[in-house]
């Protein structure tokens, strides 16, 4: 699969780059995508939820009424879950929601996500570029040149570039990452995937 290489201003350079069929041309695996996205979202959960059970409630341990003769159910403690202010039955406790996935499955999920973007023709390859200084206006100008102002975009760089990252940080629906940070969730969440020309080789190296 060949994709035209564009300048960050949106102009065509006249060159084309070939996307490896071993990554961008495989049969996508939806279940692998599901598991990888599920793990990504699970790892983002804080898991700090907590409620008090009856043993943790501060209150009197005195029997609140006599056992028999009241005409109502027996009750031995004000901390009982059936009373207002009592403990909660099987309440949530702090826990880690993360779980393990094999590296090969995660790689398959990322490949599958890239395949869907390629099929939708939502991948654009940009000639390697840099901004002189971090400037949001420059990043917006780039999106305007690519006709992607109102779209969710994910820009993938081969290596960290502070000027580009800081320029796009405050723009809504825009995300800038490096190849090492590439994940299934971000790829699928974006409407359009922007790959720097030098990032393609690193993506192929990592996923193969």
Automatic annotation (TrEMBL):
Keyword set includes Zinc: no
Alphabetical keyword list: Ribonucleoprotein, Ribosomal protein, RNA-binding, rRNA-binding
Example of a GO cellular component annotation carried by this entry: ribosome
InterPro entries: Ribosomal_uL4, Ribosomal_uL4-like, Ribosomal_uL4_dom_sf
One Pfam family in the UniProt entry: Ribosomal_L4
Transport found in the keyword field: no
Domain of life, per lineage: Bacteria
Similarity comment: Belongs to the universal ribosomal protein uL4 family.
Function: Forms part of the polypeptide exit tunnel. One of the primary rRNA binding proteins, this protein initially binds near the 5'-end of the 23S rRNA. It is important during the early stages of 50S assembly. It makes multiple contacts with different domains of the 23S rRNA in the assembled 50S subunit and ribosome.
Assembly notes: Part of the 50S ribosomal subunit.
Name under which the protein is recorded: Large ribosomal subunit protein uL4
Organism of origin: Splendidivirga corallicola
Annotated gene: rplD
